[in-house]
Design goal:
Pfam families: Cob_adeno_trans (PF01923). One of its GO terms (molecular function) is ATP binding. Belongs to the Cob(I)alamin adenosyltransferase family. It is a single chain. This protein is mainly alpha-helical and about 200 residues long. About 25% of the residues are buried. Helix content is about 55%, strand content about 5%. The chain has one domain: Hypothetical Protein Ta1238, Chain: A (Up-down Bundle). A hairpin with a 5-residue loop joins strand 1 and strand 2.
Length: about 200
């Protein structure tokens, strides 16, 4: 029989960090890794949209395909779990758990992948609005959540709560990657970009 998912320990609005420290569920550290979880879920949805539409994506002589993008997004989800685990730890206490580390190569992988996607894309000559296809719009939602994570991480820094600078760097690059990915998805699906036409 599976163990019960509910513990009844959080009924008073508090939760425990890895290490045992109890904090209110409104704490910025909880908000930050909770928003990482939200981001991870949206990236899973983006990946599902790419899988569902892979047959409609135009072929191109490029290093990036729907399959390689699927694999990278799954790797990004793994990195986000790593970040979430790091943020869930009390930096003042030793933990018996083995927490995987984020590495500088993870940031470089995002940069390399962005460069590969950009090689296929036409020059952007105007601001673009989210839209045109549900896969494109979902990717933009993920990008917005990623930016919110970044703001929360900066908020932690301002409160002098420890956060590895590499996490902030990774999240910053990830939001850029998701913007480029949204354009790439639309390009491969032959969807016209929705250009912003400011009212004058």
């Amino acid at each position: 029989m599976a163990s019960k998912i509910y513990t009844k320990t959080g009924d008073k609005g508090k939760t425990s960090l890895i290490g045992g420290t109890k904090v209110p569920k409104s704490h910025i550290r909880i908000d930050t890794y909770g928003t990482i979880d939200e981001l991870n879920s949206y990236i899973g949805l983006v990946n599902d949209h790419i899988t569902a539409n892979a047959g409609n994506m135009t072929a191109a002589n490029a290093a990036t395909t729907p399959a390689t993008t699927n694999a990278l997004l799954k790797e990004i989800q793994d990195r986000l779990f790593t970040i979430g685990a790091a943020l869930a730890c009390d930096p003042e206490k030793e933990t018996k758990m083995s927490i995987p580390d984020l590495k500088p190569e993870d940031v470089l992988l995002l940069e390399k992948s962005m460069d590969q996607l950009n090689e296929e894309l036409p020059e952007m000559k105007a601001f673009v609005l989210p839209g045109g296809h549900i896969a494109v719009s979902t990717c933009h939602v993920a990008r917005c959540v990623c930016r919110r994570v970044e703001r929360l991480c900066v908020g932690m820094q301002e409160l002098e709560l420890f956060i590895d600078p590499l996490i902030l760097q990774y999240i910053n690059r990830l939001s850029d990657y998701l913007f480029v990915l949204a354009r790439w998805i639309g390009h491969r699906l032959q969807v016209e970009e929705v250009k912003w036409q400011p009212r004058v």
